Amino acid sequence: MLALRIVGAALAAAFVAVSIVRYGRQRISRLSLIISSVIALGVIALAAAPGVFNPIFETLNFAPGSGRRLTAVLLIAVAILFLLLLRLQTYVDTNERSIRLLVESIGKASFDRDRAAELPAGKRIVVVSPAFNEAENIAAVIHAMPAEVEDHHVVTIVVDDHSDDGTSDVASKAGALVTSLPIRRGGGLALRVGYEIALELGADIVVTIDADGQHQPEELPVLVKPILEGQADHVNGSRVLGDYERGPWIRNAGVHFFSWLVTILTGQRVTDISSGYRATRADTLRTLILEQDQFWTSEVTIEALRQRARIVEVPVTFLTRRGGESKKPKSLRYAWNFSKAIAKTWLR
Hints:
The chain is 51% helix and 14% strand. By secondary structure, it is α/β, with parallel strands linked by helices. The longest helix is centred in the N-terminal third of the chain and has 42 residues, at 68-109. The chain contains 13 helices and eight strands. The relative contact order is 0.10. Helix 1 (2-24) packs antiparallel against helix 2 and helix 4 crosses helix 8 (187-200). It has helices at residues 2-24, 30-48, 54-59, 68-109, 113-116, 138-143, 167-173, 187-200, 220-228, 249-266, 282-285, 297-306, 331-346, and strands at 124-131, 148-149, 152-160, 177-180, 205-208, 234-244, 278-281, 311-318. A hairpin with a 2-residue loop joins strand 2 and strand 3 (152-160). The two termini are 48 Å apart. It is elongated. The protein has two domains: 2-105; 110-346, Spore Coat Polysaccharide Biosynthesis Protein SpsA, Chain A (Alpha-Beta Complex).
């Protein structure tokens, strides 16, 4: 027991010393230094003179003998660690939200509103395409986009997720309206920026399409038709109902598995929850609470279901990536993160 007390006191003293050095280098706040010092001094006092804490042990009915007071110390330590973890998590969540809002604000501010002011008046379908290093593919996607669909002007917005290959310049030259994010945060955050800009432009319908050439812009009329006919608030383009070029078998299995999982969780049949080709009525879009920075494809549909939107799926064609490299992580990691995104959205 004496050896344990000596080691504990030595570690506590070292902890205080490190905290003081970190504070001097402005790595931690004064409050963190105070909390660290109080905890460390408490450990040192317990090691040097454990009898001082007898009133606390007696109050908690931990009599001496059989290691019961050591158990009490461990329980108190766990409680303190839990409170510190809660404080840290709160701090991290607050900073994460602040960074997210800052990036979104900068992204919206960088949008070329002068070019947007030249858009023709009238009803609009705004197509949002989040893009990261898609200079090789994005121009073909933009050029294939129809100019009008049933008296609705089609406007394409590319949200560049801090690419370093000139994606923004290529998209702008191809005729799209472009905005760029200051740091890479993922397709979900880029999508939210695009959504907000689309609503500011007075969109009646907002469509999302991948920038890598997998989705067919020529099928846009099929995608938005149920909304234009008043039959749906949100339309999901399904490769399962349509056709698709076969990729890795594990990815194809994942499409079916996650669609089955969402069907079980929500009670509505979904055949392609990972599809990024979808259309949403503007009024419905305003009601959606979107928080995922990555693995966002499931969030939009599940959130629309949570808001009791009318959702239908239409058959579309998916091709494999036309060029460049996929930005998705390895299959197992992707599956794990996609599962977390589904769970977080469903548990709201």
